[in-house]
Fold:
Amino acid sequence: MKEKFKRIIQLYDEMISLPHKTEIARELRDEDDLFLLLLYSDMLGLPNPVFYYTLELYPYIIEKFHDWHLRMGMEHSPLDGIRCC
Structure:
């Protein structure tokens, strides 16, 4: 009985979350894009007071940056300081 109840709750959760999965994925992608903009804002000419501290994140973010510029339709990196491909 307990297993059937768990299964019913699991099915209910899946039914509720199914239409929102694409919206959630889009929101997460938009947040990642905003984070990349903040991270690379100094290279774009926007003043970034924490630029020195974000330098440590570049090795970890470079693959996401590569995925971003490919998704935006750019074959190569639009920034001169970043050579990801």
